[in-house]
Amino acid sequence: MEVTLNVNGKEIKATISAEEWKKIQSQPKKTGYERRQCGDKIFYSDRDGFLETLCERDGVTDYTLYSVANYYSDMTVAENNARADALMRKLRRFAAEHGGCLSKKDINKNNDKLSIINYCKDDLCVFVFDAENIIHPVGMICFKSAEAAKLAIEEFRDELIWYFTEYSPMPEGYYED
Asked: Which distant-in-sequence residues (6+ apart) come within 8 Å of 79 by Cβ?
């Protein structure tokens, strides 16, 4: 079987057996979150949000980083997640400083409005919902007012557009078959 490989932007033709092709196809795709072998490079975000590198040593640090999901086998996945995590922290703080967000208890008692930022029709927009009628997905940042959400869009526009249009928690090519 003839295959075309893309190596550093150059296409190379190669011949492999049908058996080898089946082996390649049956291997699970790399997620960027796999545990590594001793001596392999791993990536994590330090307390200041900077990307750091370690060698896997099968030690306490490795296990701790893995257990708190701050352990990556792929540098791009680590960079993307560190950037997305920093944006989410900044948005949560911004929401708190601009009126806060309703707690689950408040949502169940009140018919207050929640505003969230979303990406629609090639730009950022604010959706306003009745608090009791919305599903609150994990990680959604909500604001008590549309005005606060609009201010957040102004402050974090570039990062929000990156998040909605480019961010992926998986390595490049993961979703392609």
From this structure: 43, 51
